[in-house]
Structures are given as structure tokens and as C-alpha cells.
């Protein structure tokens, strides 16, 4: 899991996003019995990451939606600036 912190206006011009910290997932790995697998332990179990595809997809959709909203806000700001310049002409 990655913790993303706010960016101050001074650093926002050049940097954008700053990662505060990277945190290990406390969920225990999934153990599957596969005695022939090269990564199997002495008992024949292989540890797989505990990834929930539904949760990951929801996080992905949230990130995509957030990006779309931010892109739309930037475009609206650009349009307003352009209209302001057109009025001044």
C-alpha cells in the first residue's frame, strides 16, 4: 500500500505527487498445496499474495474517475482563461 500526501503549491508546479510512505500489507499470504512447485516449502505449500481482484478493480475505477475529474477541471480552467483573454481583445 502506498500513502500519498498533499503537495504544496510551491512544489506542485514541477513535481505533482509525493509518496509519503510505502506500507507492507498485513494480510497473510494465501497458502496453496502444490508439492511439485519450485517455490513450495517443506510441507508442499506455496505462498501467494492475498490479492482481492474486486477490491483492486474498485480502487482502479476510483483512481480513473479521479484522474478524469482532475483532467476536466484543468480543461475547464484553460477554457475560462481563454474566454477571459477573448473578452479583453
Strand line-up across the major sheet:
1-2
Our measurement of the CA-to-CA distance between the termini, rounded to an integer number of angstroms, reads 51 Å
Number of strands: 4
Structural class label:
alpha+beta
Number of helices: 2
**Ranges with pLDDT <50 over ≥5 residues?**
none
Can you tell me the number of structural domains? 2
Bin the strand percentage: 15-25%
Q: Which series of helices and strands comes N to C?
A: EHEEEH
Q: Please tell me how large the radius of gyration is.
A: 23 Å
What is the share of helical residues? 40-55%
Overall 3D form: rod-shaped
The profile of the biggest β sheet is: 2 strands, antiparallel
Mean pLDDT: 85
Task: Give short descriptive properties of this protein.
single chain, 89 residues, alpha+beta, two-stranded antiparallel sheet, rod-shaped
Structure report:
With 89 residues, the protein is α+β, with helices and mostly antiparallel strands. It has 2 helices and 4 strands. The chain folds into 2 domains: 1-50, no CATH class; 52-89. Strands 1-2 form a two-stranded antiparallel ribbon. The chain has a two-stranded antiparallel ribbon with strand order 3-4.
Question: What's this, in brief?
Answer:
This protein is of the alpha+beta class.
List the helices and strands and how they pair.
Elements: E1 2-5, H1 9-12, E2 18-22, E3 30-33, E4 45-48, H2 53-88
Antiparallel strand pairs: 1-2, 3-4
Amino acid at each position: 500500500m502506498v500513502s500519498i500526501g498533499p503537495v504544496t503549491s510551491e512544489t506542485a508546479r514541477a513535481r505533482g505527487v509525493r509518496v509519503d510512505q510505502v506500507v507492507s500489507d498485513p494480510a497473510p499470504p494465501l497458502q496453496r498445496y502444490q508439492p511439485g512447485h519450485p517455490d513450495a516449502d517443506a510441507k508442499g505449500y506455496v505462498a501467494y499474495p492475498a490479492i482481492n481482484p474486486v477490491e483492486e478493480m474498485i480502487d482502479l475505477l476510483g483512481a480513473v474517475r479521479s484522474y478524469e475529474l482532475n483532467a476536466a477541471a484543468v480543461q475547464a480552467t484553460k477554457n475560462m482563461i481563454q474566454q477571459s483573454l477573448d473578452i479583453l481583445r
